[in-house]
Amino acid sequence: MRKNLVVAIDGYSSCGKSTLAKALAKKLGFIYIDSGAMYRAITLYFLRNHIDVNDAQSVKDALDHIELNFHSRDYESHITLNGEEVSEEIRQMPVSENVSEVSANKQVRHEMVKQQQRMGKSKNIVMDGRDIGTTVFEDAQVKFFMTADPKIRAERRFKELQSKGDDVTTLEEVFENIAHRDYADTTRLESPLVRAEDAIILDNTDLTPAEQLEFALRHVHRHMPV
Fold this sequence. Notes:
226 residues; 47% helix; globular; 3-stranded antiparallel β-sheet; 5-stranded parallel β-sheet; alpha/beta; 10 helices
């Protein structure tokens, strides 16, 4: 029986999983682990070093030379790749366009799952991703599956990119990228994106961040010690 409390948040790309996870962790005083950032950081390393994701030996060698760490600053979770802060770069379109293929790789997923399970071994955590409630923490006490209208998701992601100074990417490109990632995530052989049977569906198409946080907190509080 797990003694620490784990909140697992899965769902489609650009659904605001990390927004909810960060808010929950901050409100509850839990540790936030951004599993998506881990896969993005690996994708960035692969792109920089021209690693062929279909070459098993190259992937193995690359994983042996990757060290990922999280640290908190200003109540935000930041990730380092071999000691380099890459939290902003991993959110750019080159990584977004390749992360689904890299994260579908069996070797990559096995390594990341091991690291994620280690991180959530003894502390109260909130973790978001694609297979947290189905593979990484099947025994999580609280599981959410997030979804939203694809057009709304694309608009949110487009605005986010614009706010970070990306004036090159178009809304149409973002929509196509999301559609591609949805297909890749749900059809991959290794840990595809599916809703765990005991996961609570959270459709935030018409919800504000505050409203979705309130919804999630109601469910998490039921599992908190009295």
